[in-house]
Specification:
Length: about 625
């Protein structure tokens, strides 16, 4: 096989000249590694030796310090005994003197006798003063007073000896610290130099070789980035690798490029099928996952090399207000209506250059559209358009099926609540009606007797309690019979505002609904609607407002938020018992949704009721 090296001898190119081989043996990695290991071992021996020396020379320092400290205490104890006659006895004094002699003549302190430093001088001074001055004074009771007067000076000498012991030990420790610091600096220096050497002469060349191997595996045989030049083992390996790459380049040539051209279309088709399968599998259970939808849009944009690709979606069929989901951002359309885009129902090229729009259609219901824009050099093939239309159909079908499931659960919930309402009406309502009749009969009977004035207040309270209970029951039955329309929470809120507008024409009711692509379960829709109705009822009864606004939105934390605000007189600092009871019921409803409810007075006047709860797919109900 011919070589691309021309007239250069292959063996010389790989192994180098004889002079280079001799230089390689001198600067081999093996010798340098042994040199570094030997240096580190030497520094470690120095460090261990210093530690052993310190342990040896300071073996008795701690005991000497403790004994020296005890000499002060024993001196004051002797002074105490000679000052108090009751404590002064020959046996006790002799025992204390023996203890003192044993302490001052202990082995740790006697080692200081031959020490020529200040420490030895301090010890010899203390021992001399004890045996020549202090101890003789205790032999005769006449010397007790002189002993007591000399104790402070004697204790000061002991203190100086203790300080000298401490300073002596600290000096040894400082020497050990300096030695350890020197060893550590040496080890760190050698480590840094070793790391630099390894990174430059081993890791970097090996990384280059690994990258070059990857490039060769991908069919690239030139510009491998093997620039390492050295006479060591890695240099020889690099030169050998370069020669191998040249030989492989001559062998394969441009074969890889031809294979890429033939397999690109097949790979794109496989990826498109994978995306369709992924969308069908994941969106079937949760079509409201914005992150999933955005990631799918981004993958389609990358696969088909599109300039722009985004979805405009709504969970309400034939809605004119959509939510835009793109690969890099998510936002509501700037306009109030999307009729202009929705009217373009043809799945094909638009009037705009290089743009296509695919309608999300399921069972003749439209849930938005998918719009793509190709670059000037990209032409969207017929097959690619079929893929995108299938992707749009999968999203539309998923939304439609999810709406059907929510509607079924809503109907079951409505039916269950209707049954409860009928049972309450048939039992408790009739009982309360009967109670009202009985109270009326009792009053009429008592009117014929003389006891009427004394029982009239009781009868009035009983009648008022029965009427209140009956009114609360009627309100409860009205709540249980509350239903949601086919359009979901948005239409139910709109009808609620229309109902309150008819009740209170002096108040202007507004709705700002921005939850057009959010999963809200039937349970949450019912409770959210009831909380809004209760808040609006409070506005009508107590706020004295001219405007009330209901806003539904997604919070910064990804939760769902609903606010009811008015421009009335504002909530009281200490609400009445009735108002407190109504707020408690709303908070209990919010807690059953897994959320929270807060009521506050606005600084500009009026009241705000704020409800926050999670999306339905983030929790389950027992």
């Amino acid at each position: 096989m011919p070589s691309t090296a021309g007239d250069v001898d292959l063996d010389q190119l790989v192994f180098g000249s004889d002079q280079e081989q001799k230089k390689s043996r001198i600067g081999s990695l093996r010798q340098k590694a042994l040199l570094v290991i030997s240096g580190i071992c030497l520094l470690a021996l120095v460090s261990v030796g210093s530690s052993l020396w310190f342990a040896l020379v300071t073996e008795s320092d701690a005991a000497a310090i403790n004994i020296s400290g005890s000499l002060r205490m024993q001196s004051w104890r002797l002074a105490e005994h000679v000052l108090i006659p009751e404590l002064t006895s020959p046996d006790t004094l002799n025992r204390l003197l023996d203890i003192y002699d044993n302490s001052i003549n202990s082995e740790p302190l006697r080692k200081l006798l031959d020490d020529r430093s200040d420490l030895g001088e301090a010890y010899r001074l203390v021992a001399s003063q004890w045996f020549s001055e202090m101890k003789p004074l205790l032999a005769d009771p006449q010397g007790y007073e002189a002993f007591v007067h000399q104790v402070p000076e004697f204790v000061d000498h002991i203190d100086r000896m203790v300080n000298s012991l401490q300073l002596h030990t600290e000096q040894k420790l400082q020497q050990l610290f300096l030695t350890a610091l020197f060893v550590l600096a040496g080890i760190l220096t050698m480590a840094l130099m070793t790391i630099r050497f390894i990174n430059r002469h081993l890791l970097k060349p090996m990384d280059d070789l690994g990258n070059a191997a990857g490039l060769i595996r991908n069919g690239q045989f030139s510009e491998l980035g093997l620039n390492y030049q050295s006479s060591n083992e890695i240099g020889n390996l690099t030169r050998t690798f370069r020669v191998m790459a040249l030989e492989l380049g001559n062998l394969y040539g441009r074969l890889e490029e031809k294979v890429e051209e033939q397999t690109y279309a097949l790979a794109q088709s496989n990826h498109a099928l994978e995306l369709l399968y992924k969308a069908s599998r994941n969106l079937a259970t949760n079509p409201y996952d914005e992150h999933l939808v955005a990631s799918l849009v981004r993958e389609w944009q990358e696969l088909l090399r599109l300039e722009d690709c985004y979805l405009c979606l709504s969970d309400t069929e034939d809605s004119n207000r959509l939510q835009r989901i793109a690969s890099d951002r998510e936002r509501t359309c700037a306009g109030e209506h999307c009729a202009d885009c929705l009217n373009k129902t043809m799945a094909g090229a638009l009037d705009e250059p290089k743009s296509w729009q695919f309608v999300l259609l399921s069972r003749q219901h439209r849930f938005g559209f998918l719009k793509v824009t190709a670059g000037s050099s990209i032409e969207l093939s017929e097959e690619s358009q079929q893929w995108l239309q299938t992707f749009a159909d999968i999203i539309a079908t998923s939304i439609d099926q999810n709406r059907s499931r929510i509607h079924e659960r809503r109907m079951l919930l409505m039916e269950e609540r209707a049954v409860i309402a009928r049972e309450l009406h048939d039992s408790l309502a009739q009982a309360l009606s009967y109670q009202k009749i009985q109270v009326l009969r009792l009053r009429r009977q008592l009117e014929k007797s003389e006891a009427l004035p004394s029982v009239v207040p009781i009868l009035d309270e009983l009648r008022e309690g029965t009427n209140n209970a009956y009114a609360q029951l009627r309100e409860l039955l009205r709540t249980f019979r509350l239903t949601l329309s086919e359009g979901g929470l948005e239409q139910a809120l709109q009808k609620t505002l229309e109902e309150f507008s008819q009740r209170s024409p002096d108040i202007h009711f507004l709705l700002d609904y921005q939850l057009r692509f959010s999963s809200i379960g039937a349970h949450d829709q019912i409770h959210a609607l009831q909380i809004v109705r209760e808040a609006l009822m409070n506005v009508v009864k107590h706020a004295k407002a001219s405007e009330a606004r209901v806003s539904c939105f997604i919070t910064g934390g990804g939760l769902l938020g609903i606010t009811v605000t008015d421009d009335g007189c504002g909530i009281e600092a200490k609400p009445s018992a009735h108002g407190h009871y109504g707020t408690t019921i709303m908070r209990e409803r919010a807690a059953s949704m897994g959320g929270t409810l807060d009521t506050r007075r606005l600084s500009s006047g009026g009241t705000e009721v704020y409800l926050e709860f999670g999306r339905s797919e983030e929790r389950t109900y027992e």
